[in-house]
Amino acid sequence: SLYRESLDQFSQALKIDEKDTTPKIWIGKNYSAMGEKDKAKAIWSEVLTTDGANTEVKHLMGTM
Exposure pattern of 17-51 as b/e (b: 16+ CB <10 Å)? Predict the structure, then answer.
């Protein structure tokens, strides 16, 4: 139920370092938990473009 607040916090963290994939992964997790699967996939796809070997994101996308 705190997904929206969490999403705001991870978005702020991403503004500090846009290259950091951790906030992007968590933003995707929040979107997924809120039922916004397309947004989650879009964020995770961005992660894979810069880090194609990211097994966590591959797993997350595979479970959708």
Answer: eeeebebbbbbbbbbbeeebeebbbebbeebeeee
